[in-house]
Amino acid sequence: MLFTPWTPLILLAFGLSIWAQFRVKGTFARFGQVPVSTGMTGYEAARRMLDDAGLYNIPIEPVPGQLSDHYDPIAKTVRLSEAVYYGNSISSVSVACHEVGHAIQDKVRYPMLVARHRMFPVVNFASGIAPLLLIGGFLFKFSGLILLGIIFFSAAVLFQVVTLPVEFNASTRARDNMVALGFIRNDEEGFAAKVLNAAALTYVAAAVMSILQLLEYIWIFNRSDD
Protein backbone atom coordinates (compact mmCIF):
# COMPACT_ATOMS: atom_id res chain seq x y z
CA MET A 1 0.00 0.00 0.00
CA LEU A 2 1.35 3.40 -0.99
CA PHE A 3 1.42 5.70 2.04
CA THR A 4 0.80 9.37 1.34
CA PRO A 5 -0.05 12.40 3.53
CA TRP A 6 -3.68 11.73 2.67
CA THR A 7 -3.69 8.08 3.76
CA PRO A 8 -4.51 8.67 7.48
CA LEU A 9 -7.44 10.91 6.54
CA ILE A 10 -8.71 8.36 4.01
CA LEU A 11 -8.55 5.63 6.66
CA LEU A 12 -10.47 7.85 9.06
CA ALA A 13 -13.07 8.57 6.38
CA PHE A 14 -13.34 4.84 5.67
CA GLY A 15 -13.94 4.23 9.37
CA LEU A 16 -16.58 6.97 9.36
CA SER A 17 -18.27 5.33 6.38
CA ILE A 18 -18.41 1.94 8.11
CA TRP A 19 -19.71 3.56 11.30
CA ALA A 20 -22.36 5.47 9.31
CA GLN A 21 -23.60 2.23 7.76
CA PHE A 22 -23.96 0.61 11.18
CA ARG A 23 -25.61 3.73 12.54
CA VAL A 24 -28.26 3.95 9.84
CA LYS A 25 -29.14 0.28 10.30
CA GLY A 26 -29.20 0.64 14.07
CA THR A 27 -31.29 3.81 13.97
CA PHE A 28 -33.74 2.30 11.51
CA ALA A 29 -34.07 -0.81 13.69
CA ARG A 30 -34.49 1.26 16.87
CA PHE A 31 -37.24 3.50 15.56
CA GLY A 32 -38.67 0.63 13.56
CA GLN A 33 -39.93 -0.53 16.97
CA VAL A 34 -41.62 2.82 17.71
CA PRO A 35 -45.08 3.04 16.12
CA VAL A 36 -46.32 6.39 14.87
CA SER A 37 -49.20 7.80 16.90
CA THR A 38 -51.43 7.87 13.80
CA GLY A 39 -50.85 4.19 13.05
CA MET A 40 -50.13 4.98 9.39
CA THR A 41 -48.04 2.59 7.34
CA GLY A 42 -45.22 3.71 5.10
CA TYR A 43 -47.42 3.02 2.08
CA GLU A 44 -50.29 5.11 3.43
CA ALA A 45 -48.00 8.03 4.27
CA ALA A 46 -46.32 7.89 0.87
CA ARG A 47 -49.67 7.70 -0.96
CA ARG A 48 -51.10 10.67 0.90
CA MET A 49 -47.95 12.75 0.41
CA LEU A 50 -47.92 11.96 -3.31
CA ASP A 51 -51.60 12.80 -3.68
CA ASP A 52 -51.16 16.06 -1.75
CA ALA A 53 -48.45 17.01 -4.26
CA GLY A 54 -50.76 16.16 -7.17
CA LEU A 55 -48.75 13.05 -8.08
CA TYR A 56 -51.74 10.72 -8.31
CA ASN A 57 -50.17 8.83 -11.21
CA ILE A 58 -47.04 7.77 -9.28
CA PRO A 59 -47.42 4.15 -8.12
CA ILE A 60 -45.86 2.71 -4.96
CA GLU A 61 -44.45 -0.80 -5.07
CA PRO A 62 -43.08 -3.08 -2.33
CA VAL A 63 -39.64 -4.54 -3.06
CA PRO A 64 -37.57 -7.14 -1.19
CA GLY A 65 -34.47 -6.28 0.78
CA GLN A 66 -33.51 -4.09 3.71
CA LEU A 67 -33.24 -0.34 3.12
CA SER A 68 -33.77 -0.96 -0.60
CA ASP A 69 -36.14 2.00 -0.79
CA HIS A 70 -35.76 4.36 -3.75
CA TYR A 71 -37.56 6.52 -6.27
CA ASP A 72 -37.16 5.41 -9.88
CA PRO A 73 -37.19 8.57 -12.05
CA ILE A 74 -37.38 6.57 -15.28
CA ALA A 75 -40.37 4.41 -14.32
CA LYS A 76 -41.80 7.28 -12.21
CA THR A 77 -42.33 4.84 -9.35
CA VAL A 78 -41.70 4.92 -5.61
CA ARG A 79 -40.36 1.57 -4.43
CA LEU A 80 -40.35 0.76 -0.73
CA SER A 81 -38.79 -2.17 1.09
CA GLU A 82 -41.40 -4.45 2.63
CA ALA A 83 -40.53 -3.31 6.16
CA VAL A 84 -41.22 0.29 5.13
CA TYR A 85 -44.21 -0.41 2.88
CA TYR A 86 -46.14 -2.43 5.46
CA GLY A 87 -44.63 -1.00 8.65
CA ASN A 88 -46.30 1.66 10.78
CA SER A 89 -43.23 2.86 12.64
CA ILE A 90 -41.36 6.16 12.79
CA SER A 91 -38.70 4.61 10.56
CA SER A 92 -41.21 3.35 8.00
CA VAL A 93 -43.04 6.64 7.62
CA SER A 94 -39.82 8.70 7.59
CA VAL A 95 -38.15 6.62 4.88
CA ALA A 96 -41.31 6.44 2.78
CA CYS A 97 -41.77 10.21 2.88
CA HIS A 98 -38.09 10.74 2.03
CA GLU A 99 -38.51 8.75 -1.18
CA VAL A 100 -41.65 10.72 -2.03
CA GLY A 101 -39.50 13.80 -1.52
CA HIS A 102 -37.47 12.66 -4.52
CA ALA A 103 -40.65 12.23 -6.57
CA ILE A 104 -41.65 15.79 -5.73
CA GLN A 105 -38.17 16.99 -6.70
CA ASP A 106 -38.67 15.29 -10.04
CA LYS A 107 -42.02 17.01 -10.52
CA VAL A 108 -40.71 20.52 -9.74
CA ARG A 109 -37.46 19.92 -11.66
CA TYR A 110 -35.29 20.49 -8.60
CA PRO A 111 -32.02 21.76 -10.19
CA MET A 112 -29.62 19.47 -8.35
CA LEU A 113 -31.73 16.40 -9.13
CA VAL A 114 -31.85 17.41 -12.80
CA ALA A 115 -28.06 17.81 -12.80
CA ARG A 116 -27.66 14.43 -11.10
CA HIS A 117 -29.84 12.69 -13.70
CA ARG A 118 -27.94 14.28 -16.58
CA MET A 119 -24.60 13.31 -15.07
CA PHE A 120 -25.54 9.68 -14.44
CA PRO A 121 -24.74 8.14 -17.89
CA VAL A 122 -21.32 9.82 -17.96
CA VAL A 123 -20.57 8.97 -14.34
CA ASN A 124 -21.66 5.37 -14.82
CA PHE A 125 -19.04 5.01 -17.55
CA ALA A 126 -16.39 7.09 -15.77
CA SER A 127 -16.62 5.26 -12.46
CA GLY A 128 -16.08 1.95 -14.23
CA ILE A 129 -13.05 2.98 -16.27
CA ALA A 130 -11.32 5.29 -13.77
CA PRO A 131 -9.89 2.49 -11.57
CA LEU A 132 -8.47 0.71 -14.64
CA LEU A 133 -6.77 3.89 -15.86
CA LEU A 134 -5.35 4.68 -12.43
CA ILE A 135 -4.07 1.15 -11.84
CA GLY A 136 -2.53 1.07 -15.32
CA GLY A 137 -0.95 4.48 -14.81
CA PHE A 138 0.55 3.56 -11.44
CA LEU A 139 1.68 0.11 -12.63
CA PHE A 140 3.41 1.33 -15.78
CA LYS A 141 4.38 4.72 -14.33
CA PHE A 142 2.53 6.45 -17.13
CA SER A 143 1.46 9.88 -15.91
CA GLY A 144 -0.87 10.38 -18.89
CA LEU A 145 -3.02 7.44 -17.81
CA ILE A 146 -3.02 8.67 -14.21
CA LEU A 147 -4.21 12.11 -15.32
CA LEU A 148 -6.97 10.59 -17.44
CA GLY A 149 -7.99 8.38 -14.52
CA ILE A 150 -8.10 11.44 -12.24
CA ILE A 151 -10.36 13.26 -14.70
CA PHE A 152 -12.79 10.34 -14.87
CA PHE A 153 -12.65 9.83 -11.10
CA SER A 154 -13.40 13.55 -10.62
CA ALA A 155 -16.69 13.06 -12.44
CA ALA A 156 -17.67 10.33 -9.97
CA VAL A 157 -16.69 12.55 -7.04
CA LEU A 158 -18.73 15.44 -8.42
CA PHE A 159 -21.72 13.12 -8.72
CA GLN A 160 -21.45 12.24 -5.04
CA VAL A 161 -21.15 15.89 -4.06
CA VAL A 162 -24.24 16.78 -6.11
CA THR A 163 -26.08 13.92 -4.42
CA LEU A 164 -25.73 15.57 -0.99
CA PRO A 165 -28.14 18.51 -1.52
CA VAL A 166 -30.54 16.15 -3.32
CA GLU A 167 -30.72 13.88 -0.27
CA PHE A 168 -30.87 16.69 2.28
CA ASN A 169 -33.62 18.44 0.35
CA ALA A 170 -35.67 15.24 0.11
CA SER A 171 -35.35 14.78 3.88
CA THR A 172 -36.46 18.37 4.49
CA ARG A 173 -39.49 17.84 2.30
CA ALA A 174 -40.26 14.64 4.19
CA ARG A 175 -40.07 16.26 7.63
CA ASP A 176 -42.16 19.27 6.59
CA ASN A 177 -44.88 17.11 5.08
CA MET A 178 -44.99 14.54 7.86
CA VAL A 179 -45.91 17.25 10.36
CA ALA A 180 -48.01 19.44 8.04
CA LEU A 181 -50.12 16.51 6.82
CA GLY A 182 -50.50 15.06 10.31
CA PHE A 183 -48.58 11.81 9.80
CA ILE A 184 -46.71 12.37 13.07
CA ARG A 185 -47.11 14.63 16.08
CA ASN A 186 -44.75 17.54 16.72
CA ASP A 187 -43.08 15.61 19.54
CA GLU A 188 -42.32 12.74 17.13
CA GLU A 189 -40.52 14.98 14.64
CA GLY A 190 -37.24 14.64 16.55
CA PHE A 191 -37.39 10.85 16.18
CA ALA A 192 -38.03 11.16 12.45
CA ALA A 193 -35.10 13.57 12.17
CA LYS A 194 -32.78 11.00 13.74
CA VAL A 195 -33.78 8.41 11.13
CA LEU A 196 -33.32 10.82 8.24
CA ASN A 197 -30.06 12.29 9.57
CA ALA A 198 -28.55 8.83 10.05
CA ALA A 199 -29.28 8.01 6.41
CA ALA A 200 -27.83 11.33 5.24
CA LEU A 201 -24.60 10.66 7.12
CA THR A 202 -23.83 7.70 4.86
CA TYR A 203 -23.83 10.01 1.83
CA VAL A 204 -21.64 12.55 3.62
CA ALA A 205 -19.10 9.90 4.62
CA ALA A 206 -18.96 8.49 1.08
CA ALA A 207 -18.45 11.95 -0.41
CA VAL A 208 -15.70 12.85 2.07
CA MET A 209 -13.81 9.63 1.38
CA SER A 210 -14.07 10.13 -2.38
CA ILE A 211 -12.81 13.71 -2.15
CA LEU A 212 -9.84 12.61 -0.07
CA GLN A 213 -9.04 9.82 -2.52
CA LEU A 214 -9.15 12.34 -5.37
CA LEU A 215 -6.74 14.64 -3.52
CA GLU A 216 -4.44 11.68 -2.93
CA TYR A 217 -4.42 10.80 -6.65
CA ILE A 218 -3.66 14.43 -7.53
CA TRP A 219 -0.80 14.43 -5.00
CA ILE A 220 0.65 11.25 -6.50
CA PHE A 221 0.31 12.66 -10.01
CA ASN A 222 2.15 15.86 -9.04
CA ARG A 223 4.91 13.83 -7.41
CA SER A 224 5.28 11.71 -10.55
CA ASP A 225 5.91 14.85 -12.59
CA ASP A 226 8.63 16.11 -10.24
Layout of SSEs?
Layout: H1 7-31, H2 42-52, E1 60-63, E2 70-72, E3 77-81, H3 82-86, H4 90-108, H5 111-140, H6 143-180, H7 189-225
Parallel strand pairs: 1-3
Antiparallel strand pairs: 2-3
Helix pairs in contact: 1-7, 2-4, 4-6, 4-7, 5-6, 6-7
Q: Which class do the helix and strand fractions yield? A: mainly alpha
Number of domains: 1
User: In this structure, how is the largest beta sheet organized?
Assistant: 3 strands, mixed
Low-confidence stretches: none
Protein name: Zinc metallopeptidase
Q: What this model shows, in words?
A:
By secondary structure, this protein is mainly alpha-helical. It has one domain (7-225). It contains 7 helices and 3 strands; from the N terminus they run ααβββααααα. The chain has a 3-stranded mixed sheet with strand order 1-3-2. The radius of gyration is 20 Å and the shape is elongated. The model has no long low-confidence stretch (mean pLDDT 92).
Question: Would you kindly provide a brief summary of this structure?
Answer:
This protein has 226 residues and is mostly helical. It is 73% helix and 5% strand. A three-stranded mixed sheet has the order 1-3-2.
Give a quick set of tags describing it.
226 residues; mainly alpha; three-stranded mixed beta sheet; 7 helices; 3 strands; 73% helix
